[in-house]
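Second attempt. The first submission of TMIE protein had a stray character pasted in from the spreadsheet, which I only caught after the job came back as garbage. Lesson logged: always re-copy from the clean sequence file. Corrected sequence (92 aa) follows.
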Amino acid sequence: LSQATTEPPKKKPDPVTSETVVIWGLRLWQVVGIFAIFVLAVIITLCCIFKCRIPRTKKEIEARYAQRQAAKTYADKLETVPPLNELTEIPG
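This time the job returned cleanly.
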């Protein structure tokens, strides 16, 4: 059997809200905001460095494919051109 005590009941912890102080005196919403800004800055930086833009239309996709094909054929034809010193030699 449990014995009755004269102690007051244990206090429940306060519920976590957006105004709860989390770390360094910052509230929860401020910490979440700083973290979100940091993640967004990293994503924007990576997209700028690696140019990872997704084409939006079928026309853009086809234009980009045609550009790659043209660059490839140009590079292939450039390999067949003889060196410059062979072109500038005057025979005889």
